[in-house]
TrEMBL record:
<dbReference type="InterPro" id="IPR001650">
    <property type="entry name" value="Helicase_C-like"/>
</dbReference>
<dbReference type="InterPro" id="IPR014014">
    <property type="entry name" value="RNA_helicase_DEAD_Q_motif"/>
</dbReference>
<dbReference type="InterPro" id="IPR050079">
    <property type="entry name" value="DEAD_box_RNA_helicase"/>
</dbReference>
<comment type="similarity">
    <text>Belongs to the DEAD box helicase family.</text>
</comment>
<dbReference type="Pfam" id="PF00271">
    <property type="entry name" value="Helicase_C"/>
</dbReference>
<feature type="compositionally biased region" description="Basic residues">
    <location>
        <begin position="404"/>
        <end position="413"/>
    </location>
</feature>
<keyword id="KW-0067">ATP-binding</keyword>
<protein>
    <recommendedName>
        <fullName>DEAD-box ATP-dependent RNA helicase RhpA</fullName>
        <ecNumber>3.6.4.13</ecNumber>
    </recommendedName>
</protein>
<keyword id="KW-0547">Nucleotide-binding</keyword>
<dbReference type="GO" id="GO:0003724">
    <property type="term" value="F:RNA helicase activity"/>
</dbReference>
<dbReference type="InterPro" id="IPR044742">
    <property type="entry name" value="DEAD/DEAH_RhlB"/>
</dbReference>
<dbReference type="GO" id="GO:0042255">
    <property type="term" value="P:ribosome assembly"/>
</dbReference>
<feature type="compositionally biased region" description="Acidic residues">
    <location>
        <begin position="524"/>
        <end position="533"/>
    </location>
</feature>
<feature type="compositionally biased region" description="Basic and acidic residues">
    <location>
        <begin position="389"/>
        <end position="403"/>
    </location>
</feature>
<dbReference type="GO" id="GO:0009266">
    <property type="term" value="P:response to temperature stimulus"/>
</dbReference>
<feature type="domain" description="Helicase C-terminal">
    <location>
        <begin position="239"/>
        <end position="387"/>
    </location>
</feature>
<feature type="region of interest" description="Disordered">
    <location>
        <begin position="378"/>
        <end position="546"/>
    </location>
</feature>
Length: 546
């Protein structure tokens, strides 16, 4: 068996490895480190949990220990799809380079440009960045990429999902042709294959077994329910989720609960908190400092339940997670593998529960085809029955919270592939009420669709994870949209939508509305609301978690 001492790593790196307590290299490390140290390009097909971060960090530290950083010209570059992953790589770098004098900078959104500029000006050996933020710095003229000798692309398949591939190609082109590339992806989609064929030179290809096929430490269970009403599916799932968490009791020390859409991440987190659970959400629309605080709390054990989107939780290395819950079955089968891989790490035991409804049949089939096994079916916890509220018709736009607490982005409870209700069931006017109940805003149909969008997989995700700075700041733009949801500067005289292209000379008949608008009904489901409020005031069993 290969030992770290066989790998020709720098003695300072070997000491750091010993300090970290690692005894033997993982397969990806044993496979990737030797060719990397020979200066070859590496194509690593591996996912998080396999030790892949060290497989590129250890040779980088070894190779960079000779030579010096120059102002504004980083010597190496690590690109990560999300801020959290970039921060995690930076932590790994600190661990493995602690006995060297190498310097690093972390370029991620949500951190002031000034601080980051200062570091780059001084010169850094390793620059760890999300692609958008890196290009922002480059475009501001603060950074030269012509000194990059080693470039790492981490989680390339997630980059693809998030629409970062054009940025990655551009960054490749800004770095010297002679650079060494270490490229990692969990899967090899055709687009990833194309990039590697274009930018890697005769790479050493190292592929490690998929986590799903090797992780016997995870007990998987699928609980299927058929909600009495399809439009109450989300409510039924939340009830079942609470029942499972309660039934698991103390065995569930902490858990990550995955939802497919950011809106549901917020709703589920809010609902769990309402029911007395110690829970918090994490997704790409939340402020970076809040995301960091939430993750820190989850890591240190002060937060028990982390409700997450795939993008936010992908690759997070939190060693002791007892449970993973798929509140939604993922629509991309490989996400199932990534999600459940958050538990059962480093030889520990873990439990992964998935909640399925008849609407998820095709997702379930795809997951089972990918992992080549049937997810073991389990019954709902003993005595579980859906509440009366789950049988009732929901309120118009969300089935858990009254309009008072609803943000304009969390209006729909529908899944991405669920059909919209028939037109006659749709109210002609949607009423969105701000947190403080102060505005009532009519939401045009076009805007309504915003609330239905899943976690972004394309260019919008790039904006969410790596905001563009001045002069254009999509992140701040998004926030502005949220606080002033649907104000349009081009309003017509009676406050209706402006007619584009007619300036001020719009004939009156064009501005008249022919729609009949229903009066605003405060809340159809006041009983359910009352019962929720009663539960908030009197969260019987779970108050101790708070
Ligand atoms: P990664 O796949 O890079 O996210 O790493 C997963 C976890 O494995 C991290 O917590 C690392 O600290 C740990 N790890 C990495 N290499 C080794 C090793 N050779 N032996 C034991 N643990 C390791």
């Amino acid at each position: 068996m290969t030992k770290f001492t066989d790998l020709k790593l720098d003695p300072a790196v070997l000491r750091a490895i010993a300090d970290a307590g690692y005894e033997t290299p993982t397969p990806i490390q044993a496979g990737a480190i030797p060719p990397a140290l020979e200066g070859k390009d590496v194509l690593g097909i591996a996912q998080t949990g396999t030790g892949k971060t060290a497989s590129f960090t250890l040779p980088m530290v070894t190779m960079l220990s000779k030579g010096r950083a120059r102002a504004r010209m980083p010597r190496s570059l690590v690109l990560c799809p999300t801020r959290e992953l970039a921060a995690q790589v930076a932590e790994n770098f600190d661990t493995y380079a602690k006995h060297t004098k190498l310097t690093k900078a972390l370029l991620i959104g949500g951190v002031s440009f000034g601080e980051q500029d200062k570091l780059i000006d001084r010169g850094v050996d390793v620059l760890i960045a999300t692609p958008g933020r890196l290009l922002d710095h480059f475009e501001r003229g603060k950074l030269l990429l012509t000194g990059v000798q080693i470039m790492v692309v981490d989680e390339a398949d997630r980059m693809l999902d998030m629409g970062f591939i054009p940025d990655i190609e551009r960054i490749f082109q800004l770095t010297p042709f002679t650079r060494q590339t270490l490229f990692f992806s969990a899967t090899m989609a055709p687009e990833i294959e194309r990039i590697t064929n274009t930018f890697l030179h005769a790479p050493a290809r190292i592929e490690v077994a998929r986590q799903a096929t090797t992780s016997e430490t995870i007990t998987q269970k699928l609980i299927q329910i058929t909600p009495p009403r399809r439009d109450q599916s989300a409510k039924a799932k939340r009830e079942l989720l609470r029942a499972i968490i309660k039934a698991e009791g103390e065995a569930c020390t902490n858990a990550i609960i995955f939802c497919n859409r950011k809106t549901d991440v917020d709703i589920v987190a809010k609902s769990l908190k309402t029911h007395g659970f110690n829970a918090a959400p994490i997704h790409g629309d939340l402020d970076q400092s809040l995301r960091t605080k939430t993750l820190d709390a989850f890591r240190d054990g002060s937060l028990r339940l982390l409700i997450a989107s795939d993008v936010a939780a992908r690759g997070l290395d939190i060693p002791a997670v007892s449970h993973v819950f798929n509140y939604d079955l993922p629509s991309h089968a490989e996400d199932y593998v990534h999600r459940i891989g958050r538990t059962g790490r480093a030889g520990r035991l873990g439990t992964a529960y998935s909640i399925g409804t008849p609407a998820d049949a095709k997702y379930l089939a795809a997951i089972e085809a990918l992992v080549k096994q049937e997810i073991p079916r389990a019954d709902p916890p003993e005595g579980f029955t859906l509440s009366d509220a789950a049988h009732r018709e929901p309120r118009k736009y969300d089935d858990d919270k009254g309009p008072r607490s609803r943000s304009p982005r969390s209006r729909s409870g529908r899944g991405r592939d669920e059909k919209r209700p028939p037109r006659e069931d749709r109210a002609p006017v949607i009423v969105a009420v701000e947190e403080d109940d102060s505005h009532i805003v009519e939401v045009p149909e076009a805007k309504r669709s915003e609330g239905r969008r899943p976690e972004p997989r394309h260019s919008e995700a790039r904006r969410a994870e790596s905001p563009r700075p001045e002069p254009i700041r999509p992140e701040s733009g998004r926030d502005e949209r949220r606080s002033e949801p649907y104000r349009d500067s081009r309003r017509s005289r009676d406050g209706g939508p402006a007619v584009v292209g007619m300036g001020d000379h719009v004939p009156d008949f064009l501005l008249r509305s022919f729609r009949t608008t229903k009066p605003v009904i405060e809340d159809k489901d006041t009983e359910a609301e009352e019962s929720t409020e009663a539960e908030v005031q009197n969260p019987v069993e779970e108050t101790s978690e708070n």
